[in-house]
Every structure is written in structure tokens, then in C-alpha cells.
Amino acid sequence: MQIRKTLIAAAIAVVAAQAGAASMMASPVAFSAQEKARLISTLNGERGKHGLDTDHGFVIASQHPGEQGHAISRLNHTYKGVRIFESESVVVTDKGGNIVSESIGERRQGLSAKRFDVKPVISSKDAISKAGQHVPARGAPIDPPSAELVIFPVMKSVRAAGAENKAEDELNAVDVQEVVDRHELAYLVKTRAKDGFYDTVISAKDGRVLDQWSAMQNVVGTGNSQYNGAVPINTTLTGGVYKMIDGTRGTGGTFGAMAITNADHGTTAGAVYSNATNVWGDGKQYIAGGSTTNANGQTAAVNALWGLMNTYDMHKNVLGWQSLDGNNTATYIAVHVNTAYDNAYYSDSCKCMFIGDGGTSFNNLGSIDVIGHEMGHGITAATSNLTYRGESGGLNESSSDIAGEAVEAYARAGGTGAALPVPSGNDWMMGKEISKSGQPLRWMYKPSKDGRSPDAWSTSVKRLDVHYSSGPNNRMFYFLAMGSSATTTSDYYSKYLVQAPKNMTGIGIDKAYRIWFRANSTKFTSSTNYADARLKVLAAAQELYGANSAEAKAVQRAYAAINVGADVAE
């Protein structure tokens, strides 16, 4: 359930010639207490123009380095000190601390008029107990459950002006808006167990379940890798023993730098991989029941380290974004998770990834696109934090699929350089390498080939599992990068492209990913939906390449191709 948002741009003046240099981020910087206080004071001073009183406030959630010395700040909206769920601001400031642009996810209107009461009736402990009664049994806990008191906006769908009498199947994404119906004081309860992550919204007044969604973000020396042959990997020599710690990528974190650990069929990270020599793995699928530390067992670790190195390098070298959070905080991947585990997932509690060996459906899940996908969840968690349900959840999954394709393209071209290759070396299919049947998890260019994902937006998209509601945006990105076909029987055809030419021209994966990343990191908020994404991706393209650029027109055409907004002529 989403809401349309306003996009406030105080200064958009980036010409196309700046695109390459402008897309490089600054080195990690510390944000002083004075800078943070100044930003909040500035925003508090503007409350009146939004119809807000002094009960409304801001709390900084995260900050990242931006382009050319700019900074990106994400702030939660509060009322009487309580966070308003999915109501937030993304603010870009210049070197002097002046606001350059502000993107607002607006879900706080009307609270003052209602004199909303923020005193809970039930305790957080009671809320956790209530949530536990509605969460399926999912194995041993990975993290203790938590409960945060929030103001939860309950949403409803309304038709936009001019669309009141349209038939359901004629609606475009911009014809429908999500607006706040009412606010409820609630607890956001997070439960994280072996085989399932859930977020449950519990009424703080009477313990009712207001909402619930699955929060598991998954895809359902020399290293001999399983999918890419012999690959170079960075390790550390300590006391005559080689360890899978890459001291050149990331700082701090759990292991001081990027690392690969051996879960050894458990659910915790385990120890960092070590070896007497700096040659790792046998390049073969793990033999069930065998050692996780011999050459065969090391192959999973080689897959993971090579994938993580390429994910880190692509984002740093192409975009200037360091590690998952932009601040170069080190992450890690744990392999051999559980037994015959047909899954891989990202966990934000450790800001790390867990990879299974595969079971019935998959081989080891450490292919390059899957690792890029899961690490993409970490980047989204550090930036837009798109809520993992409905349309925003579909965009979250799509953003990870997009990241997976970008990482794959970069790795296939040798893993070097400051741009994604043209033509790209990726297959535009998610998880094809890991599939025992040879069938991918998702087709970016024609999502409906899986029999469950839609090719275009409709009002039913928000009711789908996020792995299927991601389909239209995946197709949008493919068209943006690679273009479409005018042949009606082609997998690359869209009936929604009605302007000339009927086959839109792509702009290449390099420009497409730069545009997408800027929108996700500086404009999207946690409740961004398809219609809102179109506006903000377009704004990102206009900032990078110009208001009337071919790139901006391509964004409009790519979204029009999935029934989001009107088509335009090239």
C-alpha cells in the first residue's frame, strides 16, 4: 500500500557532459553533531509550509557521502517523538550544508488535528507475544525478536482526477493513488528465525494484527570457482595461514574487512575460512555430507568471495559507492548455511549474506548474479529501505535483480574499469546458473515467462508476492538499457509503446544503472510505488543528462512500456 509523494528540487543543474564525473561519490566522511543539528533545525523551520505544528519532528536515520562533496541524509518523520512508519525525507545537501533537493514520503498529515495519542495500552513484550502467535513456526531464532512503537498509517486506494470512470483493465499506474485513511498506534515487531523473517504490525491499543509480511530478502591467491573457472581472489596471510579476509575492501564490521565464513551447516556465521596454501576450491558442486573445509568444501567460499569482490568493485569504480552503506563498512558472506539449503538471503541485522549449498532445486547459490542481488538488498536497506511488501517490496526485489545484472555485466567484462560494458555480458535472467533444471528464477525482459510475474503494472500488482510484483520494473530496466522490439510476437514487445518508433531505443546498462542508483539512493523513500518511482527515476535522468535528453525520454518510454505513465516520441 503506497502513497504518491512530492519531489522538491531546490537546484537541478547538471548537464549531460558532467554525467561521467558527476556519478563518482565522495570518500566516506564523518557528519558532525553541528551539521546534523543544523539540518534538523532547517527542516523544523519549514514545518509551517507543510501545515505541521511543533509536535512534528525529524530524526536522522542514516547519512552517506554524495556526489561532488554533497551529502545524502535520510530522516524519519516523528510525531510527539514517535516514528511515523514510511513517512520520511531524503535530503541532499552541498558542502556548505545548504539543501539542494528534498524528496518527501508524506504520511503524517492530519495527526495534529486528531490530537493523536501516543501512549500505548499494551507493552512491547505483549506485542512480541501477540506477533508470535501469528508467525508460522520457522525454526530456531537467528536474532531475538524486537518491537518498536510506531504510528502506522492505514492506507486506502483512490482514483486520480479524470480516472474515476475508467474500467479496471484500462487503468495506468498514475490513475491510482494511495492515501492515508487513518493512523493507528502500533508496534512494529520483527522476528528472525532459521527459515523465515517476518515483520508484524500489532495495535498498541488492543493487540490486533494490523499488517504482516515476510521480510526475508532472498532469491528463493587463486580460487577454482563453480561457475566462472579459475578466478583471482584477495586473501590475507597471517602467521603462515591464508585467510579469506580481503583487507583492501571495506573497514570495520565484524571481521575488520570483507570476509567469507564457514557456517558449517549451521545458522550462524562461523569462522573465517583458512587454508595452508593460497589455492582454494575444486570448482565442483559441494558433495552432500562431505567436509566443508577441504577443496570441495572451499568452492562455495570461492564463489562467494569472487562475487563479493566484483559487487564491491563495480559499485566503487563505476559509482564511487563504497561497500553496502556508502561509508565503506565491511560486510561478509557465510557459506554452507543449513543442510541442503535451497536458498540465499541478506540479513540486515549483521549486514551480511548467507548462502546455502542447494538441495532439490538448486546447486550452490553463490552465482555472480545471486550475490549481486543479495548485496543489492544491503544497499537498498542502507538507502531507500523500500518496505518489503506490495509495490515498494516489488521495487526492492527489482532493485536487487537490477544490481545482480549490473554486477554480472561488470564481472563478465573482467571486473575492471569505471563503466559497465557495452554490450553487456549478462544474460538478463536471474539464477539460471544455479538452477538444476536450467530454468532461471526470473526473466528480466519478459517476466511472465515464469507463469506468475506480470509484464506490466495493474491494480493487482500490490497484492502479489514481491518476487512477482518486481516483474514490471525488471522489464522497465531491460527496455531502458537494451531497448524493445516492434514485432508483436517478440518477447521484447510492449503494446503500451504507441509513439514513434514502436521499438524504443535503449541507452545501455551503464547509463541505466547510474540513473536507477541515483533514484534509489537520493530520491526513493520506503513507501515509493511504481508511479512514484517513475517520477523519481525521471528526475534522476534529468539531473544526470538534461531535462530534454534522450536518456530522460527513454525513462518515460521504458515506464510507459509497463503501463506506468504515458508514452512519448523519441
What is the number of independent domains? 4
Shape: globular
Poorly predicted runs: 1-24
Let me know the CATH homologous superfamily of the largest domain.
Neutral Protease Domain 2
Biggest sheet character: 9 strands, mixed
Write down the Rg: 23 Å
Structural class: alpha+beta
Beta-strand content bin = 15-25%
Mean pLDDT across the residues is 92
How many strand elements? Answer: 24
CATH architecture of the largest domain: Orthogonal Bundle
CATH class of the largest domain: Mainly Alpha
Q: What is the count of helical runs?
A: 12
Helix content range of the residues, please?
25-40%
Distance between the termini: 33 Å
CATH topology of the largest domain: Neutral Protease, domain 2
Q: Explain this structure to me?
A:
The chain has helices spanning 19-22, 33-45, 111-114, 124-132, 295-319, 368-382, 390-412, 466-469, 471-482, 509-522, 530-545, 550-560, and strands at residues 7-9, 56-65, 71-79, 82-93, 99-105, 141-159, 176-193, 196-203, 209-214, 217-218, 222-225, 229-232, 236-238, 241-243, 245-246, 258-262, 271-272, 274-275, 279-280, 332-335, 344-347, 352-355, 429-430, 442-443. Helix 5 packs across helix 7. It has 4 domains: 7-107, Roll (Nuclear Transport Factor 2, Chain: A), CATH 3.10.450; 124-215, no CATH class; 222-382, Elastase, domain 1, CATH 3.10.170.10; 393-560, Neutral Protease Domain 2 (Neutral Protease, domain 2, Orthogonal Bundle). The strands form 5 sheets. Strands 1, 2, 3, 4, 5, 6, 7, 8 and 9 form a 9-stranded mixed beta sheet that branches. Strands 10, 15, 16, 17, 20, 21 and 22 form a 7-stranded mixed beta sheet that branches. The chain is α+β, with helices and mostly antiparallel strands and 570 residues long. It contains 12 helices and 24 strands.
